[in-house]
Amino acid sequence: MQQPGILRKQVLRMLDDPRSDEFVEHFCSQWLNLDSVYTVMINPEYFPRFPEPLKAQMHQETTEFFRTVLKENLSCLSLIDSDFTVLNAPLAKYYGIKDVAGSQFRKVALSPEHRRGGILTHASVLLGNSSGDDTHPIKRGVWVLERLLGDPPPPPPPAVPALQENEPTAEPQSLKDRLIAHRESEACMNCHRKIDPWGIAFENYDGIGVWRDSTFQKKGGAAVAVSEKSQSPKKRTARKRAARKPRKAAEVDPRTTLANGTEIQNLEDLKAYLVEHKRDQFAETLVRKLLSYSLGRYLEFTDTESVKKLTSDFREDEYRMKDLIVSIVLSETFKTR
């Protein structure tokens, strides 16, 4: 068995080697479900100019960002909120960030007016958890709970009703109003009280991850495109009439209240809440994800003490990412796997 000091040096050497990039790619894709960005079908009716090849660069931003946090041994809390990201010119232009040239990804300083910083504002996460034509607060809320906090909600009960879309002849409802109506069902209420607030805070970022202050009511009031073939002639006629009417802009409202009563004004508020009040839960989730990945198996009850020890050491090391990797490799759980 190698001495801890020697083993530590070897781990740090391996992390600095370019071959560690493969670990970053695989782990990030698995942990954050980044490949979902490729499965979302963009509706050209709503986003006719969306550059499909940019999906790969969205994916790369997140892996390059994680790689930077790891190699610079930054705190894992930088993953939630940061004053930088890693961009190339096409993605910077997409975000409206100036003075980034070339196709190579590089570290870019962010200002508050950019409204970016941390993986919650990455297009890979925002688009990957949308419907392709609109935002999807439920998907985004579940993603936060599952991927960042290790607290996934239970699956929906059988025959759960879908989120109702607005009828074209009715007074349009906001997304928040439709979510409230949806969770009035007793079968939906408890889960959605836990999920929805986390997703509503993202509402300033549209279905493709672009910032918006206001939004147009979708044609016919629908949040999701509906096949005309599946509708009655009466409904098709009503939709066509509604589509010809001028659409009014509505101000986006990301204000929400978490299940514990905490009021959240926007995504910046949510990020601050995560950093201040959920840092240990996030840190333990990251420990669990990395330990499971390193062992190549799901964690078991017998791993509980190891997770506690690793999380405690992680906290004492100020949540430094390289230090966590070293601690995992030096742990008895890893050495006796």
Descriptive account of the structure:
- Residues 166-170 and 219-231 have low confidence and may be disordered.
- A hairpin with a 5-residue loop joins strand 5 and strand 6 (263-264).
- The protein has helices at residues 4-16, 21-32, 36-39, 54-71, 89-95, 123-128, 137-148, 175-182, 186-200, 233-244, 267-277, 279-295, 304-316, 321-330, 332-335; strands spanning 84-87, 106-109, 214-216, 249-251, 256-257, 263-264.
- The protein has 337 residues and is mainly alpha-helical.
- The chain is globular.
- Among the domains are: 4-26 and 279-335, no CATH class; 134-276, no CATH class.
- The protein contains 15 helices and six strands.
- The protein is 48% helix and 5% strand.
* Overall pLDDT: 86
Q: SSE string, helix = H, strand = E?
A: HHHHEHEHHHHEHEEEHHHHH
Please estimate the helix content. 40-55%
Strand content: 5-15%
Shape: globular
List the strand order in the largest sheet. Answer: 1-2
Q: Which class do the helix and strand fractions yield?
A: mainly alpha
Number of strands: 6
Q: Tell me about the biggest sheet?
A: 2 strands, antiparallel
Low-confidence segments? 166-170, 219-231
Distance between the termini: 14 Å
Q: Compute the gyration radius: what is it?
A: 22 Å
Tally of helical runs = 15
